[in-house]
């Protein structure tokens, strides 16, 4: 799966050579008269239902990756060296999982997404 900026015949052929099906939306100027995956300005996907479902999974994966960046300090790493960076990333993932476990134990699974919402609720009790 990729953005439409990566829509080229060479990329599509390389994906097919790896025995996979490319899920790359076509830009508006390449999709004339074809039933292909396309994404409009409001990021709504259009095209065959199977490709739309697969493309939506991509955005779900991007949301998961953005959480540690937003809430756990992974957007701008201030460590040097691979070992220190790996330690920072792993501690951030442990914090993310501890937050999820805490939300589940408190029966607040809808609050798993953000540690801020969960801590506000915890301190009020």
Describe the structure.
The chain is mainly alpha-helical. The protein has two domains: about 1-65, no CATH class; about 70-125, no CATH class. Helix content is about 55%, strand content about 5%. The chain has four helices and two strands, in the order αββααα. The protein has helices spanning about 10-15, 50-70, 80-105, 115-125, and strands at about 40, 45. Strands 1-2 form a two-stranded antiparallel ribbon. The mean pLDDT is about 80.
What is the topology?
Layout: H1 9-17, E1 38-39, E2 45-46, H2 49-71, H3 82-105, H4 115-124
Antiparallel strand pairs: 1-2
Please summarize what this structure is:
By secondary structure, the protein is mostly helical.
**SS-based class:** mainly alpha
Compute the CA-based radius of gyration: 20 Å
Provide the β-strand percentage band: under 5%
Q: What count of helical segments does DSSP give?
A: 4
Tell me the series of helices and strands, N- to C-terminal: HEEHHH
- Walk across the major sheet and give the strand order: 1-2
The number of domains is: 2
The biggest beta sheet reads:
2 strands, antiparallel
Total DSSP E strands: 2
Q: Distance between termini?
A: 43 Å
Average pLDDT number? 78
Low-confidence runs (pLDDT<50, min 5 residues)? Answer: none
Percent helix range:
40-55%
What overall form do the CA principal axes indicate? elongated
